[in-house]
Amino acid sequence: MAHPKHPHEGHRERVYNRFLNEGLDHFEEHQALELLLFFAKPRCDTNELAHTLIDHFGGFSQVLDAPVSELLKIKGIGLVCAVLLKLIPAMGRYYYISKDKNIVQINSDEDAVRFFIPRFHGFTQERFIVAFLDDKHKVIKCLTLAEGIRNAVAINSNRIVAEAVLAGATNVILAHNHPGGIALPSDSDRWLTAEIAKMLKTVNISLCDHVIISEGDGISFASSGYLPREDEYCFPVQQAASEEIFSVWKR
Q1: Ramachandran bin of 129, using left for φ above 0, alpha for ψ from -120 to 50, beta for the remaining angles
Q2: What is the distance between the alpha carbons of residues 81 and 42, in angstroms, rounded to a whole number?
Q3: Which positions ≥6 away from 13 have C-beta within 8 Å?
Q4: What is the DSSP letter of 67?
Q5: Alpha-carbon distance 171 to 227, whole Å?
Q6: What is the rounded average pLDDT of the residues 141-157?
Q7: Of 182, 203, 185, 207, which is closest to residue 194 (Cα–Cα)?
Q8: Among the listed residues 109, 124, 196, 204, the one whose alpha carbon sits nearest the alpha carbon of residue 159
Q9: Which of 12-16, 65-69, 245-249 is predicted least confidently?
Q10: pLDDT(137) > 60
Q11: CB of 62 within 8 A of CB of 25?
């Protein structure tokens, strides 16, 4: 016995074809979200749910940035929908990093900014990422060493030194993001950069740069004149290098 045609099947096919022919540029936010929800709710009309989400959170990006706990409070959003919504920015970040996976050397401030921008894609909280390089500025490894709140992150300075030594790095580049802000260093950013540079120098490792990323843009301390020179290290290391130092990076 043939199954009756689903009442929304024709609508979905039209939306699919519109996307394939036009892309998303001319979709309203609720229409783009409706299309996305098709894949989590194959037998439902997702238009009303898309409107509800947009109205509740304030916009398409805010829906994707919302915590899972908040998404699950919305009627019609179950775990599958919540996972799909959180998957989109994460997949975007994974995609951008994959596109740049052939970047094996960072030889300029432009290279540094380009290297780090995709690694902060979609994050709504501050993160602190460190790239460890050899003497030819080839990237040995890149690690996320801290996650924080929207405007602060706790940095274990000693771990940066330990990871650099373990990797056999001779150069280090720091990076963190300013979610929803501007890519300019605060006094705390500059203070801690000098502290970390001084600690790295005790084991003959150079701090090449510190990059701040915000909204897909970034600045380089090295090219902006913020990176301290050795003769400018005026901030004392707070404890011996063998002890743990946790500093709150706050703006």
Answers
A1: beta
A2: 11
A3: none
A4: -
A5: 14
A6: 77
A7: 207
A8: 196
A9: 245-249
A10: yes
A11: no
Which residue, among 68, 109, 66, 64, has the nearest Cα to 85 in the 3D structure? Answer: 64
Which amino acid belongs to residue 194?
A
pLDDT of residue 39: 94
Confidence of residue 95 (pLDDT cuts 50, 70, 90): confident
Residue 42: name the closest of 87, 2, 11 by CA: 11
Of the ranges 1-15, 36-50, 111-125, 206-220, which one carries the lowest mean pLDDT score?
A: 1-15
In the predicted structure, residue 188 carries a pLDDT above the cut 90 = no
Looking at residue 211, its pLDDT comes to: 95
Dihedral, CA atoms, 148, 92, 144, 65, nearest 10 degrees?
Answer: 10
CA distance 35 to 6: 17
Total Cβ atoms within 10 A of residue 92? 14
Helix axis angle for 47-57 and 29-38, nearest 10°, is 130
- Residue with the two structure tokens 């709504």: 124
Torsion angle defined by CA atoms of residues 174, 178, 184 and 190, in that order, rounded to the nearest 10 degrees: -50
Pull the structure tokens for residue 46.
């997702």
pTM: 0.66
Is the predicted pLDDT of residue 99 greater than 80, yes or no? no
Instruction: Please tell me the distance from the alpha carbon of residue 147 to that of residue 150, in angstroms, as a whole number.
Output: 10
Q: How confident is the model at residue 23 (pLDDT cuts 50, 70, 90)?
A: very high
How far is residue 249's CA from residue 185's CA, in Å, rounded to a whole number? 11
Q: Which residue type, as a one-letter code, is found at position 206?
A: S
